[in-house]
Each structure stands twice: as C-alpha cells, then as structure tokens.
Amino acid sequence: MPPTVQLQQNTPHVFPHKGLIALGVLGVLLVLALGAWQWYFAKDNTQVSHADFYQEIAGKNPSFVSAEHFVAQGRYAEAVQQYETALAAAITVEEKIKIKVLLAGAMIQSGELAKAIPILKEILTLSSDPLTARGRATAAEGIAEIYSRGDRSVNQEIFTDEPFKSLLVPDNFGLTLRYLHEYAASIYPLAIAELRIANWYGAQLPKSGSVTNLTETDIAEYAATARQFIAVADYDIEYMQADGTLVADLRAAKLARANAIAHLNRYGDTSLGKADDAFKQAIDAYATVGAGEDGIARYYYALFLMQTYGAEKRADIQTILAPLSQSAYRDAPVAELLRNARHVAYNRRFPALIADIDSGFRNFLITIGWMEADFAS
C-alpha cells in the first residue's frame, strides 16, 4: 500500500536559492523526509488501492470509460472532451482530482499546455487529505513536465503565483526543473519525480576523463543522493507494479530509472545495477503499448552507449535504433521529442552526436524535419 500521510507538512514549499551547497543539503533533507514515507509504506495496509478507486469511478461514469479508451488509442483531443464530461458528473473531491489529473494529462499530450496549467494548479488547492496526495503530486509533476518542454510563452504562466514563483531560478533551467520535481515529491513520493531528481544529481557527476569544479566531498554526496532517490523511488515502482491501472506511470518511471542508473554507471557506480538491463526493461515496457511507442527509450539507450563508449558501440547503437526506419516511428512520441530538440542548441547536439556514427538514425532525423545545418551547429 502507498503511504497515507503527506510530506507537505514536513517539507517547505519554498526552496532557498543559495547555491549548490544549500541545494545539496535540501536534497539530503528530502531523502530523509521521504524515508518516513517508507515507514508508512510498510506499516499501513488499510488504504483502498488505486485500482479499486479507479474501478469505482469507471463503474458509474461512462464518459470516464470513453475517455480512457481514447487515451489508449492515442486520440487525446477526443479524450479531453470525454474527461470534461466525466468531470461534470464527478461527485467527490477524490473523483474530481483523479479526473482533472487525467484531463490535464490528455491536454498535455494533445499540445494544449496553456490550458492544462490552471487545471493542474487548481488540483493542488482542492484538498489536503492524505488520500489525495498522489493525485496532487501528479499535478505538480505535470507542471514540471510542461516546463521541461521549454515553451517560454507557456512557462511564464507557471510562475505567476506561489509556490511556483519561489521555485524559479532565473537563467537556470536545470535547477528550476529540479525544484519543480522536488515540490512534487514533497507532496507524495512519486517515483517519476524522485528519479528525475536523481537524474539531476547524477548528471553533475564527473565521467571518465571529464573535468569538474566539484570537490571530492561534493561528488560523494551527489552520488549518494542520486542512489538514495533511486532507492526510495523503487518503493513506488513496486506499488505501481502491483496496481494494474498505473501502467503508463510505471513505464515512464522505468525509463527515468534507466537514465538515472546510466548517470551512475558513467560515473563508475554499478551498485544499483547496469543501465543496459534497465533500458531493455524500459523498451520492453513501452513496446507493449503499440508500434513506435518504444522509440524514446531506444533513443536514450543509444545515447547512453554513445556517451559512454562512443563509436566502439556503433553496431549496438545501430541495432537499437534500426526500428526507427519503420513508418510507425515518424508519428510516434520519439519524433516529437527529436523535432523539439532540433530547436534548442543544447538539446540538438545529442541526436547529432549519434547521427555522426549511425546513418540510419541521421536519415530518420531528416525525415522528421532536421536540416543539414542542424548536424553541424
């Protein structure tokens, strides 16, 4: 069972912006606070499962069922309409939060980012009941997801009020994003939020031959913090694996975990396993959704191999990315990810790095809109 208390009461919503040392301390404090959730996780066996709650809504709200069918088919615009109808029929606060979370998620998938933000913010104010903590944390993580897409005009709407105004670090996209993930994790220990925090810490670690300004103490603390967040996230992963209605969240968590393990592996730490195994599990999880859906997991696996081994793993990279030549991938989520990467210099360099040794992947990028100049810039 998931924990039944809310971490919000123990963790401030406003995080100080006082440099990396303060941020590292904050991360450790969050891990210690999340440890309390683990105790409740093991202790409490009385809460109604998410699956039971999900089934209860589906049984009395036919529009909700229709919306879920549309989501399963990737027809998000139609799902939005059905979720809105289902919301009008919702009675309890728990039902409203559940449906609003799904409504906002469908809006994000259909590109209606600006419309999703006020809905997600409203969810955060609807309840303080521990039983709704997961839904509220999911809403906060949804805002982090919107911010991660980098649409400046949309992102301005995120930081118009508290607690989000205090989470904005001017001119530091990465730290702001980490603060948003930490805010979500402070409400409820969502695996996806915790693993994205772990990714931030892991990304700071020096790799073989790289230069860093971090002290040996800082490096050890960052590695330990990344490991701790991954370990805590595994509790939520176990919960989702036992619950048949959280498969989409579980897939995302498996990919985030693979990326977090990849950072540790590149640093030389294999104490939590090998990234190769974690990426293969993520690919398998996404492959069950439908043709082309495993593309993002394949891309990140190939990127890990490229950044870690370079051309030495050329054959493996080509094998992993070979399916992208199929037509199903041109309209899959990986195509949107890579199209968006093209417009940001920092993000553009990673696909271009792989394209240097994989002509098939280079051709895929061209079919989805990349230009020759993008590979050189």
Give structural notes.
The chain is mainly α and 377 residues long. It contains 19 helices and no strands. The radius of gyration is 20 Å and the shape is globular.
Write the SSE topology.
Elements lengths: L19 H24 L6 H11 L1 H11 L3 H14 L3 H17 L3 H13 L7 H16 L3 H4 L17 H15 L3 H14 L11 H26 L5 H21 L7 H13 L7 H15 L4 H8 L11 H10 L2 H11 L3 H9 L4 H5 L1
The biggest sheet, with number of strands, parallel, antiparallel or mixed sense and barrel status, is:
none
Strand element count: 0
Termini separation comes to: 50 Å
Helix amount: 55-70%
Query: Count of helices?
Result: 19
Approximately how much beta-strand content do the residues carry? under 5%
Low-confidence stretches: 1-25, 35-46
Shape: globular
**CA gyration radius, whole angstroms:** 20 Å
N-to-C SSE series?
HHHHHHHHHHHHHHHHHHH
Oligomer: single chain
Rounded mean pLDDT score: 87
**Which class best fits the helix and strand makeup?**
mainly alpha
